[in-house]
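Newbie here. two chains, one complex. Structure please?
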Amino acid sequence: MSATNIVLGVIGFDCHSVGNKILEAWFTESGFKVTNLGVMVSQEEFIAAAIETDAKAILVSSLYGHGEIDCAGLREKCIEKGLEDLLLYVGGNLVVGKTPFPQVEEKFLKMGYDRVFGPDCSLEKVSEMLKADIAAKAR
Amino acid sequence: MSSSKLSIEKFNEIRQEILQTWPTGHGLSLEEGIAYQKAIPEAKNFAVAMRKASQAGKTLLQPRAGVALIQDHIKLLQYLENEGEADLLPTTIDAYTRQNRYQEAAVGIEKSLQARTSLLNGFPAVNHGLTGCRQVTEAVKSPIQVRHGTPDARLLAEITLAGGFTSYEGGGISYNIPYTKKVPLQKSIDDWKYVDRLVGIYEENGIHINREPFGPLTGTLVPPFVSHVVAIIEGILALRQGVKSITLGYGQGGNLFQDVAALISLKNLAHEFFAREGFKDYELTTVFHQWMGGFPEDEAKAFGVISWGAAVAVLAGADKVIVKSPHEAMGIPTKEANAQGLRCTRQAVSMLRDQKFPIGSEHRVEIEQIEKEVRSIMEAVYRLGNGDIEAGIVAAFEAGVMDVPFAPSVYNHGKILPMRDNNGFIRVFNKGNLALSDDIMAYHREKLEERAKAEGRNVCFQMVTDDIYAISKGALVGRPR
C-alpha cells in the first residue's frame, strides 16, 4: 500500500516554525507522505494542497493565540470544495490566555475539527489516532 | 539602495507613501511628534533609563504585554507597573499588525469588543493611531517600548514614536528571518533603514530614542555567535542612520558559563566592530532574555526556569532582563501571571545584586571561542560585500554563509543544526555553509562526541529534537529516555 498523504502547516499569520519542522520529521518517520506548507498558511492554501495531493487529513497548527479567528470556517470551506470526508486536526496554543483544555476542545470541535490537541500532546498518540481515523473513514 | 545614510529627500518621499497605507497615518506630522516627545519627562525616557542602569550596574526588569483594546491595555500595563514592579514597560504588537494586515487587526478589535476579552495577541497600535498610543503612554509612569516582530515597521514607527514611545525593538534581519516567510532580506533591511533614520531625526532634534535589535532570533538552540553577528550588524546599520542609544540582546542558552561568556563577548565584539566602522558616539547597553524556548507546563517548574534566567542575567551583567511568565507553556499570560514572573525575577535579581562573580578560566575559554566564531563569520560577510557589511549580510544569507537555525524565512539557508554538548553548551552539529573553519568545527565535534559517548548513542538528529523539548520536560540536555 502506498503512503497516505497528509497536509501540514501553521495557519494565519503565525510564524512559529520550530514545532512545524519537528512535526514534518515525525509524521514522515511514522510513514505518512507529508506535504508541509510551513508557516503563515491561509485556509485556501491548505485546501488547495489537500485537493492537489488527494490528502486524507489536514493538520493545522496555531501557536500565537489567534487560532480562534484563523481556524473558523475551514470546515465549511472544505465542504464547499467537496471534501466532506477530509479529517481536520488542530493543535497548539489555540486561544489567548490560559484556558482549561476541555473548553478549548469544545470550541474547536464545534468549528468542525475532528481532533483538538494542546501543546503537550504525545506525538505517538496523535499518529496512532490519525491512522485509526483514516482507516475508519475508508470503511 | 546604498548602505549609506538615507537622504532627507528620499526619506520624505517614502514617508508620503507609507503614511497613506492606513487612515491613521494620514497627515501625521513629524514636527508635532518631535514637539510632543520634547514634553515627555526624562524619567520616562527609555534611552536615559538604560544609560543610568548601565552606569549604576543595575539590571532593569521588563515584561512583554499587549492586548487588543486601549483601556484593557492601560489596565494591564498599570498592573505590571504597580503589582509587578516592572522598571520598564512594553507594548507588544499583535501578529496581524506585524504583517501590515490592519484590516484583519480591525476585525480582531471588533471581535474582542464582542467577546469582552482580547482575541488578539497584542496591541494593534496602527489601528488605534496616534491618540490611542498617547492615551497609553500618558497613563503609565515608566519608560515604554514597542516590542513586535514586524518586517516592514515604518508606519508603526511613525505612529508609535509620535505617540510617545521612547524605545523601538527590531531590525531588518532579526524581524525578518525569524518572523516571516517570504520577505526578501534586502527589502526588510531597506525598510528598517527608514525606521532607523526616523529615530536618527528624533535624535538630531534632541530626543533620545532607544533602539533594540531582537537578540534571541528563533529562540531555539541559537548558538551565541549566530545571534551576535545579527546584533552587531543591525547595530552598525542603525548607527549609520543616526541612532545613538543601542541595546543589544541575547537569549538565554541555558549553560551558565556560555551565557555569561555570550553577554561579555557581545559587548566587546560590538565595540570592536562599531570602531572598525568608524563609530564612537553611541551608548551601548545589553539585554538578556529569559529562556525563549519551550517551557514546562507546571507553573512551579516554570518559576524555576524564570528565576534561573533572572540569576544568569545578573551574573552576566545585563542592563535589562526580559521576563517570562508561569503561563509561558500555554501562550499569552494573564496580568496576574505576568506580574508573578516579574516578582519572581525581582527576588532573584535583588539577592544577587551585591555579590561579585569573577570571570574564571571556564568563561575565558568560551569567550575566546565565541569571539573566534563571530570574527570568522564577520570576515566572510565583509568579503562577500567587498567591504560593505550590508551588501555582505544579504549575500551571506543567500549563500548560507550566515544561517539561523529553525527560521521560517525562505531567504534563510536553514541547514545549520545546533545541539547541546555534555555540559549543555549549545554547539553546532551540522554547519551547512556557515563560514566556520575546520578548526572551529573540530572543537564543536569533539564536544558533541563527548556527549554521544556519555549517552551511548551516536551524534544524531534525535538529539536535536530531544534538546528542543528538554527544558519543558524538566532538564537542560535532552538525554535518551
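Moderator note: The domain at 5-138 of chain A is CATH 3.40.50.280 (Rossmann fold). Chain A has one domain: 5-138. Thread marked as resolved.
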